[in-house]
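Example 3.2
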Amino acid sequence: MIGYVTLGTNDLERAAKFYDALAEELETPRMMEFDTFIAWGKPDGPAGVAATKPYDGKTATAGNGTMVALQAKDKAQVDRLYKIALANGGTDEGPPGPRGDEGFYAAYFRDPDGNKLNAFTMTA
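Structure, written as tokens:
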């Protein structure tokens, strides 16, 4: 089981604004916070997400082929998360809609550091 996913950032304040907005929609508070690291999640809840400056002090880069999927409760929340992401410095990677079969509804976007995320719900 995945406990949490950590994504690198070069600007923690900017990342915090982006992830605070998504977390508010998902009703998921900040769980931990340090000078170089912020995590959103619920103790003993589903997997959380963290934004961190790299420990080695080097520049954070987005992984090619790496993506974090945020589970939404329904299609309307997928739509809202996509809009929230774009309104908070995210970029479009694919608007909300069905993917593959009709049982998977998702939207794709990148955070301000280029990390790829998706908001999805299973509809079947």
